[in-house]
Amino acid sequence: MASVRTSLREPxxxxxxxxxxxxxxxxxxxxxxxxxxxxxxTLLDAWVTPTRWRVxxxxxxxxxxxxxxxxxxxxxxxxxxxxxxxLEGTLFAAAMMGDxxxxxxxxxxxxxxxxxxxxxxxxxxxxxRRVRGRTDRVDAxxxxxxxxxxxxxxxxxxxxxxxxxxxxxxxxxxSASAAALRDPDAHxxxx
Length: 191
What we know:
This protein is mainly beta. It has one domain (2-171): outer membrane lipoprotein receptor (LolB), chain A. It is 5% helix and 53% strand. It has 1 helix and 13 strands, in the order ββββββαβββββββ. It has one helix at 76-84; strands at 2-9, 16-26, 30-36, 42-48, 53-57, 62-66, 90-97, 100-107, 110-118, 123-131, 134-142, 152-157, 163-171. The protein is globular and about 45 Å long. The relative contact order is 0.17.
């Protein structure tokens, strides 16, 4: 579980929205990300499992749900790959470029280009995930194998132009609670 600070640059209006929030992940099972704005209003509530997902953006009164199929206009497939099955895929090419490694993976319908190298904090992982004409890019700089305070991530959705910068403020190795990862639409007593 990690507490994060975010800055989202929305391409249509050019507005930048700063927020804070938390990301809870149990690999292979579920991810939950909740971001709140400066006034404490929820900006984003995303829940993703291998077979289901729900994304709510309260400021624009958007709530969408789905199953295994990833939509073309939301980063569901990317979140599944980055959070639930990080760096998974079938390796079909690799090269060393000085102090960097380039890996090409096939992950379902997606092709992923990974560049692993160094950054100021330690390890840099840059990934471009392409599927059905959509490209998500992430550039992460972290000190260790697990998320830690000071780690940073820059995300770009090339289709929409959305850019998000994330800085980890604190991280815990303890597992997220079952309640945090439960389906937000489930009724009391249901899984």
